[in-house]
Amino acid sequence: MPETVDSESTVIRRYRLKRDWPRRLAIELLTFVVALLALAVVGLVILDTSPGHRFIVDRIQQLETASGLRFRIGRIEGSIFGETRLKNVAVLDRHGVFVTSPEIDMDWTPGAWLRNSLYVDRIEAQRIILLRLPELRKTGRKGPILPRFDIHVGELKIHRLELAPRVTGVARTGAVYGKADVRHGRAVVDLRVAMDRGGDRLALKLDAEPDGNKFDVEVRAHAPANGVVPALLGWKRSIDSRTVA
After folding, report:
1. Fewer CB within 10 Å, N side or C side of the chain?
2. SS3 assignment, position 217
3. Dihedral angle at the C-alpha atoms of 178, 182, 64, 109, nearest 10 degrees?
């Protein structure tokens, strides 16, 4: 009789185990996911420390775009998940450095990348030096002109843009302000450039869908004969025009 009771108890336990396996599996999977999320949070916290910033800087310096651009950052200050300050920034082509800045402030939302979007509220630099125009490598790639991900720049401010003599023949300074929104193959750009000492004034408004055969642009330009725009165009005459296309 006791053996029969034991057998029945064993059968009942096995039945309950079989019946409860979906619930137990769900609990174990949930525990596993929670553990992964905890590790991810720890990893993100570590990234937002001095060693984590150094790791990011090292990885950035190993990157190279298809056109041959490379980037260097001295160090990262602030938080990589919001208000970030980049120190001693340089952009290089195959011949070396062509743009430098001692400091660039950026307020952005890195989580937007999960939605295939680069969302930047503000990019601001007190000083950027353009040493020369870049020489980009030809990639031979064909495809959409605009990137496949969205880009939003709410505010761009360059308080002092320095152009070295190699850019236009003589050293010049000015300022740049703008904003841009690239979304679903459409680019909306508003850019203003003002050079010092009665120099160039340039205002650009662009609304374009390159792959949809839409290209609306308004350019207002005023530049003396020795200005930046004539120098870049290879002209030796002043410019005072408004162009709509």
Report:
1. N
2. strand
3. 80
